[in-house]
Amino acid sequence: MNKKKVLFMLTSMNIGGVEKSLLSLLSVIPKDKYDITILLLEKKGGFLNDIPDWVKVEEAVWFKKIKPVIMQPPKKTIADHMNKKEFLSVPAFAVAYFLSKKMDNRYLYYSYVLKNVPDNSYEYDAAIAYQGPTDVIDFYIANKVKAASKISWVHFDVSKHQINLLLYEKLYSKMTKIYTVSVEARNKLVEKMPSVGHKTEVVISIVSPKVIVEMSLKEVNFDGDYKGIKLVTVGRLSREKGQDIAIKVLSKLRTEGYEIKWYCVGEGNNRQEYEKLIEKYNLKDYFILLGAKKNPYPYIKQADIYIQPSRNEGYCLTLAEARRLNKPIVTTNFTGASEQIQVGVTGLIAGSTEDLYNNIKKLIDYPEKRKLLTDNLRKQQEQEKQRCLESNLFEYII
Q1: Does residue 52 register a pLDDT over 60?
Q2: Contacts by 200-203 with C-beta closer than 8 Å and gap 24+?
Q3: Is 242 within a domain?
Q4: Model's pTM, two decimal places?
Q5: Spatial distance between the Cα atoms of 177 and 138, rounded to a whole number of angstroms
Q6: Number of compact structural domains in the chain
Q7: What is the mean pLDDT of residues 239-257?
């Protein structure tokens, strides 16, 4: 039997929700029916070694050359061309950059930047830009890959991310399907780009209760002697994940006399900013940055309350994982939150920083409320049958 050839493309395998969701998806793909290749812009990341050995992993060697052009200011690119005596490249780059800026059409710019990137030498049954929307990845899948089906998998709320409309209208016109990870995320995408409505569907990220529960039983050194309330948040240290909001809320709670610590699992570019904020509020011993953890589940399991303070999400995988571990949850009202949480039954949703503070305070003051949320989540897990993403559904997806 000939296996179907499927290409997934991501930036890297750093420890994050998108990468974790891919690993979960791979775990339910029948390897006897599919020949899977993962193409990474950079072959690195904490989850790299967790990719199943039957999956091929390749690196986009061409990306090293174009990465500086994408990441640095245009003046630096022009200076680099001049230093290398690539004088003819200067006017071509300048025209592409300034014309795309004037017309607000990044497609022109990426057409120039990727013009010398070779076409992928293989032909696939499906090619998936899995970390959408990511300009280089979506452009490569749309223009440099031969595939019967081309898919962009949107993991973010596009209303909260700056995307160039003319670029994505062009790219999405070349895609067979576009998947979003929540109903609300789909609505936001179609609102922004009505032309893609007919090809956009919702596919919720895979969460395996069995794997999460098993991994949550691993022993970790997690402040075992502390007798106060433990709050846990999992997520990249970045503005969209809202750890700065959490720091301010914790300061207010401790000022009011609550014996409480807040632990953050995750790493990111905002670490130094948050360390300064922690210092400012005198929370060095109470707001703990634990760093990235491949297995965050023991920390979630040992929490008294799980908090998701994000400003925006597409489908919050860590929220789904906390639900699987039956944790009392307080979350902000980002895209997709109301699709996961039934307010007052399986968790609390905060519409503002003040709401977040009040909801956490409520669960601390009333332990019976925490127990009710936990009991309701446990009943929900027992009633729900795990969605089965086997070959028939995966064939539908591709």
Answers
A1: yes
A2: 201/177, 203/153, 203/179, 203/397
A3: yes
A4: 0.85
A5: 12
A6: 2
A7: 97
Q: Structural domain of residue 263, as residue ranges?
A: 210-383
3-state percent helix, strand, coil for the chain, nearest multiple of 5: 45, 20, 35
106-152 pLDDT, tens digit each: 999 999 999 999 999 999 999 999 998 999 999 999 999 999 999 99
Half-sphere exposure of 296 (CA within 13 A, CB side): 27
The structure tokens listed for 364 are: 């601390």
pLDDT band at 395 (very low <50, low <70, confident <90, very high): low
Claim to verify: residue 195 and residue 217 sit in the same structural domain: no
Residue 260 near residue 286 (C-beta atoms within 8 A): yes
Q: What is the biggest distance separating any 2 CA atoms in the chain, rounded to whole angstroms?
A: 72
CA distance 233 to 307: 5
With respect to residue 158, please indicate whether it lies within any of the assigned structural domains.
Answer: yes
Q: Residues 123, 125, 126, 127: what is their CA dihedral angle, to the nearest 10 degrees?
A: -10
Who has greater pLDDT, 102 or 397?
A: 102
Radius of gyration of the chain, Cα coordinates, nearest whole angstrom:
23
The answer to whether 211 and 50 have CB atoms below 8 angstroms apart is no
Structure confidence by residue, pLDDT tens digits, 359-373 = 999 999 999 999 999
